[in-house]
């Protein structure tokens, strides 16, 4: 049997080049087909146009609204104004018509009496002087809500404040890295090299900015939807200290060349990541205790998402750092699992839980469908946990495992479509509120990118598009569409929705608008050129062109990357200032008072 088996093996090896390639690689016919005939390419083009079209429609509506206001102000409102539009005998007739009315004059005291008005709050002055069209549309102020425990408010603000710090620090490093793409010889210091700073940037925004911001918002949402108080404020402070310590120590280790050697987004060595894990264990226990003491009958869907995300990130972190899975092909499979689950089952799942609370609150209406939320929840758990290895299509990983990942990527359309439909149906009837809100534009943008970015990830998992795009700058663009376009925008929306209610201070409205547009336009300038350049680069690799030619090709696209990144970085500085303005002189939000009491106070 052994000689026969050996003969069969050698025969297959010799005849393999003549066999169809469908079993182990992309068919030649499919690779040579026109680029625009590929389904993944067409889907991606449509998905890129959706946010651009949405932004264009929003800008057109805003310009139209402003022009209508100007036109309304120019309409004749007095007799003199109306006479300008009349000629000949019509003028005489109009004058005779208004002559009796012109002889009557009001004394000005018909309603006020003989005493001067007491206008200590400036209501009369504001009502009489506010006639001009503002440069930025007036936004509604945050409504007063029931009082929040001052100690909980302090804890939440510390979470959000440290998260904002890491956003500025992490993206400042990213800004510097973008400059190094254009000017690679800007420095010669080892601890400022690209290989050391790149993981500093990614880990700071992952574990410092996004994670701390999510947890801070979670400490408000979890007890709020449970109609109870947080189980332990002390445990909240313990988690805050542990996670910040992990990011500080991890950043110093990475800049010193101490890292986990090859694991993307898990460059922190295990003792550093253990601090992060212990902090999350403490928070998980705290949230579970809070939900257990709830006074509501059911567990609201936000808590389903939030608590599940903490459980998942603990599981994937243990798997990713388990010592016996750090070598060989198994380490590659674990890396794909960890990298993708970190985004989808930690950041995405937690943020969706926040949206299920804050979006209905901002619209002052319930979520459209609880059932759609539950469908999206279980479908994401089913399909997202399967898709990590679609990052390694055409690798040595078993073909069946690659196929499972691709099928799972297709299955992700179910939770994405269910969640997007749920959010947009909740927005139904409330689209007119977007112009008067500085939180809803962030939510709508995040939801749009949730659909387009996730759908684009599915298209990128197709075998041809994976062969074309993977390991190019297209993957960098996709990761920013998801982690920035979805996670960052949804976090900003939730922070702008919550902090004024905690402190009683609103952010400068025009700076919120500047923050939004700089972040959105910067993201577009960053991602679209990288998608174009990444596609051209992939085609060069498929044609067997020298690698250095693809590097030269990317030079102008990297310049646009630096420009877009600079706009995004400026928006973060504005956000940090807006957060400072919301917090400075903070006072705890008061209970909603009766209008008469408010005036007499």
Automatic annotation (TrEMBL):
Keywords, comma-separated and alphabetical: Electron transport, Membrane, Respiratory chain, Transmembrane, Transmembrane helix, Transport
Segments forming domain Cytochrome oxidase subunit I profile: 130-601
Gene Ontology CC terms: membrane
One Pfam family it belongs to: COX1
GO molecular function: cytochrome-c oxidase activity; heme binding
An example Gene Ontology biological process: respiratory electron transport chain
Segment forming the signal sequence: none
Transmembrane stretches, start-end: 41-61, 155-179, 204-222, 242-262, 268-288, 300-323, 343-360, 367-387, 399-425, 437-457, 477-499, 511-532, 558-580
Official protein name in the record: Cbb3-type cytochrome c oxidase subunit I
